[in-house]
Design a protein that fits this description.
This protein is mostly helical. It contains 13 helices and no strands. Helices cover 64% and strands 0% of the residues.
Length: 264
């Protein structure tokens, strides 16, 4: 007798229903200003320090609100162009024209394309930090991992060309990756603290290592899917989210440590 195919094994693109619950985490209002990479190495900043950091965003020093508006418009346009083109294919002239400014306006704010991309990374980190805060403040323990993995996958799928450019840049400039690495460590720290509170005890060193390795697996798998597209399950499929969340829970022992009954 011929077996009936399991519908769960049929690849399907992420639907609006699947990702709707992630919208308020991903689709945040535009960021008013980018935070410099150095400032993001520590998240214990006071309000005054944050204001100083914003004033020292990557690029040339900006004194007037008009200059900040142009700065933000160029960065927003960079993200928009990266939805359809690779970074290396986007010229400064094309970027400036698409933003509605001259090449001179670009060079008045950035010394080079690399410095411009540094500003994009700084804005990405600010965006991700705020999304992470919303996630941990709103999501219940039972659905935290699934929502977290779903949000991560959707974010990097939507910005895959931007993230591919970041991965390539890290190969030739290793120090470039340190603020991104720090952000990942802070993500793991927050989940460890949440799991410790739920378990009503500090996690052991081994348990903490397992949580950090679960993040390494999740983010590494996303990176590999963006760069190499190895398959058999692709980044834009619902099964990618489901299986990656399942792997995260298994490696981190999340359900056991938080007392959540595994779903059948």
């Amino acid at each position: 007798m011929r077996a009936t195919p399991d519908p769960r094994l049929k690849p399907a693109l992420i639907s609006s229903v699947t990702v709707r619950r992630f919208d308020d985490l991903v689709e945040a209002p535009p960021i008013a200003a980018a935070v410099p990479l150095e400032a993001l190495r520590s998240e214990s900043r006071t309000t005054s320090k944050m204001n100083d950091a914003l004033a020292a965003s990557p690029g040339r020093k900006i004194k007037q609100a008009r200059g900040r508006k142009t700065y933000d418009a160029l960065i927003a346009t960079g993200f928009k162009l990266l939805e359809n083109q690779e970074l290396e294919a986007i010229s400064i002239a094309e970027l400036a024209k698409a933003a509605g400014y001259s090449v001179g306006a670009f060079y008045a704010r950035f010394r080079s394309k690399d410095e411009f991309f540094d500003a994009m990374i700084a804005q990405h980190l600010d965006f991700r930090t705020r999304a992470r805060g919303r996630l941990f403040s709103r999501e219940p323990d039972e659905t935290l991992v699934d929502t977290m993995i779903g949000e991560l996958v959707r974010y990097y799928w939507k910005r895959r060309r931007f993230w591919r450019a970041a991965l390539i840049r890290s190969v030739r400039s290793p120090d470039f990756w340190e603020p991104l690495r720090h952000h990942g460590r802070m993500y793991a720290d927050m989940l460890i603290a949440r799991m410790s509170a739920k378990a009503q005890r500090p996690l052991t060193e081994t348990e903490q290592t397992n949580v950090r390795f679960a993040f390494q697996i999740a983010l590494g798998t996303i990176n590999n899917a963006i760069i190499n597209r190895p398959g058999p399950i692709m980044l834009g499929q619902t099964l990618f989210v489901a299986n990656l969340a399942r792997a995260f829970r298994l490696v981190s022992d999340y359900d056991n440590l938080t007392g959540i009954v595994p779903r059948r």
